[in-house]
Automatic annotation (TrEMBL):
Designated name of the protein: aldehyde dehydrogenase (NAD(+))
SUPFAM superfamilies reported in the protein's UniProt record: ALDH-like (SSF53720)
Residues at the catalytic site: 260
An MF annotation (GO) of this entry: aldehyde dehydrogenase (NAD+) activity
Entry's family note: Belongs to the aldehyde dehydrogenase family.
Kinase is among the record's keywords: no
Length: 507
């Protein structure tokens, strides 16, 4: 692979914001292989517990300075980071594509998300609004204001190796927090690249060492963050199983957690749908990132009268998909992240067959020389029933379930009858159907769309879901409040001391 960023050629250990490396005696490495071609592209030393403690101590010291920097000034530094990511968009997007396996267009799109959230955060730095309220007591004033929390821990997943970090970090920074990031052990190189890209900005602005910190490792490093009372907020993206462990650990110390977990997302297609809109949206939602998005479309719930037509159109569209090296923009679908993910795909296929499912588009592994990494699979479509255990389970692979319904309320019930509650959509030109889907008796997901798919959220809206998806909200809207603590203030500017509720207290 060509050099796309000036990265170290020797095994490295991540450290703090200005690039200082905390070396230790460990000889272990995290080996990052590209699922595109199976090549070893990086070896990174995992952080030891001593490394971790040193990073957190540095972050604590940095917080005492960073919280005093005016928020608009913090926003200006984030703006400069956005300019750096613009400068390196092609290089970082290519690295994301190569290390993670998503298409180059999606890799570039992920870097654009970083740029967009930087722009959003710059504006947010001047809009950390509080409230003022009238007091019941004369010559008193009441208000609410917001203060930074401290250290924000960020655990990100392999499927969006840089964008989700930025959703958290950029907002956390303008709010006055410092960040400790643990990227997925499957994509450490992209995290190092992001740290390197922002280093120049941090140094040029005399940002205190420790505002941006990086640790590496597997679940053990995540457990350090979860159990550490010095971590004021832990934002974790990953599986529901991981989220339960994080939530339990953080709650046991009465800490704060922000969880973005699994999805089992459905699109309802009514008899009033524009199928020329619906089919491309369904296909992209189902096969984009090789089915490895938390917002991937996994279920299509189709009205009886158009079921056969939709099935036929989807089969035709899938026949046009081109699978191959994600760096080649002529391909639609790249590889799964690793061979363990391939095993999960195969197990799901077996479970579908055992349940009696019929494949509209057949599954399979691709083992030609061009697919030597062993990570390429065929996107497939299976006719299924919503209550099957395999359909209730989120499989991180390009498997689409085709379900049918008669009445809209039945479709909504099927949409909601899974443990997860992230993203959902309906395709209809009927206003009543659309509004019912968006009403309190409609979708129970954090995201509900009309005439667009389940994936591809914009950063302007708060992102997150309900039920086993975790309930957290990141990115836009008022998600910044999760990264701050609320304080209520009452100010007495009079010469007497009246008490609330008319209580009298005489001395």
């Amino acid at each position: 692979m060509q050099t796309i960023l000036p990265l170290p050629t020797q095994p490295v250990k991540p450290g703090t914001s200005t690039g200082q490396q905390f070396w230790s005696s460990t000889e272990k490495t995290i080996d990052s292989y590209s699922p595109a071609d199976g090549q070893l592209i990086a070896r990174v030393h995992p952080s030891t517990r001593a490394d971790y403690d040193r990073v957190v101590e540095t972050a604590q010291a940095a917080f005492t300075e960073w919280r005093q920097v005016p928020a608009p000034r913090r926003g200006e530094i984030v703006r400069q980071m956005g300019e750096q990511f613009r400068r390196y968009k092609r290089e970082l997007g290519t690295l994301v594509s190569y290390e993670m396996g998503k298409s180059l267009q999606e890799g570039l799109g992920e870097v654009q998300e970083i740029i967009d959230i930087c722009d959003f955060a710059v504006g947010q730095s001047r809009q950390l609004y509080g409230l003022s309220m009238h007091s019941e007591r004369p010559a008193h004033r009441m208000l609410e204001q917001w203060h930074p929390l401290g250290i924000v821990g960020i655990i990100s997943a392999f499927n969006f190796p840089v964008a989700v970090w930025s959703w958290n970090a950029m907002i956390a920074w303008v709010c006055g927090n410092v960040c400790v990031w643990k990227p997925s052990e499957k994509t450490p190189l992209t995290a190092l690249a992001c740290q390197q890209i922002i280093t120049e900005v941090l140094r040029n602005n005399d940002v205190p060492e420790g505002v941006s910190c990086l640790i590496t490792g597997g679940h053990t490093a995540g457990e350090w963050l979860a159990h550490d009372p010095r971590i004021a907020l832990l934002s974790a993206t990953g599986s529901t199983r991981m989220g339960r462990a994080v939530a339990t650990a953080v709650a046991s110390r009465l800490g704060k957690s922000l969880l973005e977990l699994g999805g089992n997302n459905a699109i309802i297609v009514t008899e009033h749908a524009d199928l020329d809109l619906a089919i491309p949206a369904i296909v992209f939602g189902a096969v984009g990132t090789a089915g490895q998005r938390c917002t991937t479309t996994r279920r299509i719930i189709v009205q009886d009268s158009i079921y056969d037509d939709v099935k036929k159109r989807l089969a035709s569209a899938y026949a046009q998909l081109r699978i191959g090296n994600p760096l080649d923009e002529s391909f639609h679908v790249g590889p799964l992240i690793d061979t363990d993910a391939v095993k999960g795909y195969q197990q799901a296929v077996d479970a579908i067959r055992q349940a009696g499912g019929q494949f509209v588009v057949e599954p399979g592994l691709l083992d030609e020389p061009a697919f030597a990494s062993g990570c390429y699979v065929k996107p497939c479509i299976a006719e299924a029933e919503n209550n099957w255990p395999i359909v209730q389970h989120e499989t991180f692979a390009p498997i689409l379930y085709l379900l049918r319904y008669t009445h809209l309320d039945d479709a909504i019930a099927q949409q909601n009858a899974v443990p997860q509650g992230l993203s959902s959509a309906i395709f209809t030109l009927n206003l009543r159907e659309a509004e019912r889907f968006l009403s309190a008796v409609g979708s129970d997901c954090g995201i509900a769309n009309v005439n667009i798919g389940t994936s591809g959220a914009e950063i302007g809206g708060a992102f997150g879901g309900e039920k086993e998806t975790g309930g957290g909200r990141e990115s836009g809207s008022d998600a910044w409040k999760a990264y701050m603590r609320r304080q209520t203030n009452t100010i007495n500017y009079g010469a007497t001391m009246p008490l609330a509720q008319g209580i009298t207290f005489e001395l």
